[in-house]
Amino acid sequence: MLTIGEIYKENSKIVYGFLLSYTKDASLSEELTQETFLRAIKSIHKYNGKCKISVWLCQIAKHLLFQEWEKRGKTINVSYDENIQIRSDSTEELVISNENKKKIYKIIQSLDNPYKEVMYLRLTGDLSFKEIGEILEKSENWARVTFYRGKSKFIRRLEYGK
């Protein structure tokens, strides 16, 4: 079994990069990375080994990030069809202004299935990957991988128009 120091050395950059991809704030990401490892030390008994330790740490980091966003009151409402709500405390944190809503939904709509389907379920339904997998009769892991691939395609199209 690895020591806490070894776990930190092997995973701190992963956790920091994960947080930075959402926050775009080096200082906040650094602070949350440190807090992630403090929480991990306190709850190491809850780690069951069913996933990589880096995944477990990123789950802790994500939870801390959501708490931080909640403290700061980061909720963004988007009206689309029947008052769909996108919250910034979801996996897909985006700063959405009125002029960007249409562009965002056009990009999501342009994605091929199953990416489009999974993105809508995750973004607008705020469903867990397990729930998405159940709805689409796939595994939780399939839903997670499909979402992140769709998210990558979405980001490329948003940034580069590709």
Automatic annotation (TrEMBL):
Residues 7-74 form the RNA polymerase sigma-70 region domain. The keyword Transcription applies. Keywords: DNA-binding, Sigma factor, Transcription, Transcription regulation. One of its GO terms (molecular function) is DNA binding. InterPro entries: RNA_pol_sigma-70-like, RNA_pol_sigma-70_dom, RNA_pol_sigma70_r2, RNA_pol_sigma70_r4_t2, RNA_pol_sigma_r2, RNA_pol_sigma_r3/r4-like, WH-like_DNA-bd_sf. SUPFAM superfamilies: Sigma2 domain of RNA polymerase sigma factors, Sigma3 and sigma4 domains of RNA polymerase sigma factors. Signal peptide: none annotated. GO terms for biological process: DNA-templated transcription initiation. It comes from the Bacteria. Residues 103-153 form the RNA polymerase sigma factor 70 region 4 type domain. Belongs to the sigma-70 factor family. ECF subfamily. This is ECF subfamily RNA polymerase sigma-24 subunit.
